[in-house]
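Contributing new records

If you add data, match the layout below exactly. Sequence lines come first and carry their own label; structure lines follow with theirs. Keep one chain per record. Anything else will be rejected by the validation script.
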Amino acid sequence: MNFVDFVENLSSEQRKKIFSSALQYFIPWRAVWNSNSLSTPCRPVFDASHPTSTGVSLNMTLAKGRNNMNKLLEIFIRWRIRRCGFHTDIQKMYNTIKLDEDFWKYQLYFWQKDLDPNIEPVIKVIKTLIYGVTPSVGVTR
């Protein structure tokens, strides 16, 4: 769905923009199992709060936006005082917001399909907002 891509699939200009920068960030991830899910019983979970060797994480360095999320109490009160209420959920909402290519360098990760330590991992880039990265919460654009 084009949320992520192998760096090798990017154009030479896009790869240059990532690797000519003095700073790149590789987000640590782990596999998380959910036996109750039919569609994704196992999925990677990215941890932008994991500290680096310097003790600083990606989330500690990025600016946090305003939280524009509705508060649960406010939603409940509106449901009670109005004649009818409804609830919606936008599927994969974060993934529909594309990151500017200038920020791809902060959302890299190592990938190796079979998790075989004898095979060299490849680099992938996350090209959209993802859960767990601090600025994603307050995006207003």
